[in-house]
Amino acid sequence: MPTPEAATVAAELRTAMGKLSRRVKSEDRIPVGQVAVLGVLDRDGAMTTSDLATDQRVRPQSMARAVGLLLEQGLVTRRAHPTDGRKTLLELSDSGRAALEAERGRRAGWLALAIEAELTDKERELLAQSAALMERLAARQGLFPHPA
Q1: What confidence tier does 25 reach under pLDDT thresholds 50, 70, 90?
Q2: 105-144 CB burial, b ≥16 within 10 A, e <16
Q3: Which ranges of the chain does DSSP label H, i.e. alpha helix?
Q4: Per-residue pLDDT for 60 more than 70?
């Protein structure tokens, strides 16, 4: 059982991270769900629509609509699955990769400007140390078993 102090810090950190994440995402010009799909394809490579739906925890029909929009915009392309002729793989197009990089740049740019404008040198140093600590926490394997 965590101490009351750790529980308080955890709640405050979760709230602050949620607010910051939403604020940074507000810089996006592509809808969040579509950016998420582009990000998965960038990180993990070509996937089927079904695999994308599973990864994003959405219904296949919802993912098919998102993929359709990305195809219409030229942000993803289709190609034949190498081992299963019934399936197609989706992958980032050059335009999709450029759009994703632009989204990431806007997010990072906004955050960098906010850090410069809002934080003192000492606070920036503390934030840099905190980022490393958050990475460590994110890498932590589960402390509690997942319910069946």
Answers
A1: confident
A2: ebbeeeeeeeeeeeeeeeeeeeeeeeeeeeeeeeeeeeee
A3: 4-25, 32-44, 49-56, 60-72, 94-118, 121-139
A4: yes
Task: Check: CB of residue 87 under 8 Å from CB of residue 46.
Answer: no
Q: Give per-residue burial for 33-45: e unless 16+ CB within 10 Å, then b.
A: bbbbbbebbeeee
Query: pTM of the predicted model, to two decimals?
Result: 0.71
pLDDT of 102-122, one tens digit each? 999 998 999 999 999 999 999
Q: Is 84 helix (H, G, I), strand (E, B) or coil?
A: coil
Dist CA 31 CA 49 (whole Å):
18
**CA–CA distance, 89 with 59 (Å, rounded to integer):** 18
| DSSP category for residue 73 | T
Beta pairing partners, 66: none
Residue type (1 letter), 73: Q
The amino acid at 88: T
pLDDT digits (tens, 9 = 90+) for 72-101: 999 999 999 999 989 999 999 999 999 999
